[in-house]
């Protein structure tokens, strides 16, 4: 049952990777490059926390012990909530990117990241409240949580894509802190 949760989380991980930029090249706007460097330097450790948290959930996808699944998922959801909050703070502190509609793009991205943080905090609360002594009810609860993670990812995707569109995306893609890391998202079986 935890496999659905892992699949849903991989959607969230794709969202973070999208936020952390891809591609390369782009103009030579010094102010924009400075803005991107500021954001990207703060982003990398948070993206790693999110990837690590999602990987920890993958490690228990074949686990039979409901209590262990619950503890692992709870810790991962808390780590995600903290990381998304830190990302929102980074984008907020960086100010608006020096481009057309930079203010609204920044506001929307900060809201989306804060919404993700709040949603993961809510998921942590829900997983903590699941009854681990009844495997069927526990599995049903995880299924419901997995469905909500899927909705969450797509809901916040638009604002984040808008933040990194055009010149902002090109500037972010040039920064080492925003370049995709080559971590494997394939869970290892125990």
From TrEMBL:
<feature type="compositionally biased region" description="Polar residues">
    <location>
        <begin position="178"/>
        <end position="190"/>
    </location>
</feature>
<protein>
    <recommendedName>
        <fullName>Small secreted protein</fullName>
    </recommendedName>
</protein>
<feature type="region of interest" description="Disordered">
    <location>
        <begin position="163"/>
        <end position="190"/>
    </location>
</feature>
